[in-house]
């Protein structure tokens, strides 16, 4: 698996760019992959593995490297710090030969102008190699917090937050799940084809297709280079979407001809799911805050080709009187802390804080106060987030019932079999990563009385 220094150098510079600029990992990696689009498939995969792996395991890697370095990682020069992390990741988590990881690191240090530190890099990595079968970790007997934080590479405050909410056993299962490989999950665009037709076409394109966990129109796919090469993708036969995020449209009581307003719609997964369900006789208004986000929806719909979707740039927190009492369904999948999708977006954990979570609750309630007024009598609002923080979930549902006429409606009969019986007293469901399939996700359905 050892690669030439060009791929390692690309990974190193991408990691450095992420650290210095604060650029989100999926954006930085995607930008770099565009520059590497003509590289062999295995090189592109190795590049992605390094960037995602180092980001995912950063806390653990720094802890281990600190045990063998006279200079702690936070004191190292940024390039050397990221070079050590990247090399340690290869030694500890890949089948790259230890000698190759060390020698390529030394070569990169010299190439990037740090010849004087190449001996330091070599010494730290060689010491790591000698000790990798018995690496020092925090003593669990002294408490769960430090141990879980290091082993699962999660900021201490998030571990503490989970321990208080869910206890040590559930917390560890969730943390472990964030480090597992996530499948690419897709949803069949049912106005284009049937699930069987999609599965057959993907098979003809050389894609490995496995049934989803929740829905008959969902699949896990693998064995492809990138989606843009698949004719089935270019023709709009499917949308990439985690099964948990299929729940909002799935639990809604949608009928052909309904009007749906998706108030925070980008990149459009729930919009397209709702469009499938209301058919061409219905209308879906897909809104988001910025032109960048609405362009993402338009770009995806250009591929899918639905004529009954209207894309609009609008701040969801601002009430639009023209939509008062008009919607059969409002989809309010709102900005949140994202704690349920840390396994898919592995730098969320470094960018969220307690204060941000508190601020998000204020924003969520401001949006809910506005968009709840779009629901017509007998219509519904589905509130969802991709977090597992009760303050953003169950507490907001209670707030809605205290401040609006909306009342919760059971979603039990709409849930996949494996999720039945897991709704709370408000009739909502909190999907916990590691305890159920898919990402962590929260869904509640509320109705405006006639």
Structure description:
The protein has 450 residues and is an alpha/beta fold. It has 4 domains: 5-131, N-utilizing Substance Protein B Homolog, Chain A, CATH 1.10.940; 144-178, no CATH class; 184-240, Sun protein, domain 3 (Alpha-Beta Plaits, 2-Layer Sandwich); 243-447, Rossmann fold (3-Layer(aba) Sandwich), CATH 3.40.50. Helix content is 46%, strand content 14%. The protein contains 17 helices and 12 strands. The chain has helices spanning 5-21, 25-35, 41-56, 58-68, 78-93, 98-111, 118-131, 144-151, 156-178, 195-204, 231-234, 247-251, 269-278, 291-304, 348-351, 354-371, 394-403; strands spanning 184-188, 208-211, 218-222, 238-240, 259-262, 283-288, 309-313, 327-333, 375-385, 407-408, 429-431, 441-447. Strands 5, 6, 7, 8, 9, 10, 11 and 12 form an 8-stranded mixed β-sheet that branches. Helix 8 (144-151) packs across helix 9. The longest helix has 23 residues, at 156-178. The chain is globular, with a radius of gyration of 24 Å. The N and C termini lie far apart (64 Å). The model is unreliable at 1-5 (pLDDT under 50).
Would you tell me which CATH topology of the largest domain applies?
A: Rossmann fold
Average per-residue pLDDT, rounded, comes to 95
Tell me the series of helices and strands, N- to C-terminal: HHHHHHHHHEHEEHEHEHEHEEHHEHEEE
Radius of gyration: 24 Å
Residue share in helices? Answer: 40-55%
Parts with pLDDT < 50 across at least 5 consecutive residues: 1-5
Number of strands: 12
Whole-Å distance between the termini?
A: 64 Å
The dominant shape is: globular
CATH architecture of the largest domain: 3-Layer(aba) Sandwich
Relevant CATH superfamily of the largest domain? Vaccinia Virus protein VP39
Number of helices, counting only DSSP H or I runs of 4 residues or more: 17
Classify the secondary structure makeup into a structural class.
alpha/beta
- Looking at how many chains there are and whether they match, the oligomeric state comes to single chain
Largest sheet: 8 strands, mixed
Work out the count of structural domains: 4
CATH C-level of the largest domain:
Alpha Beta
What is the beta-strand fraction? 5-15%
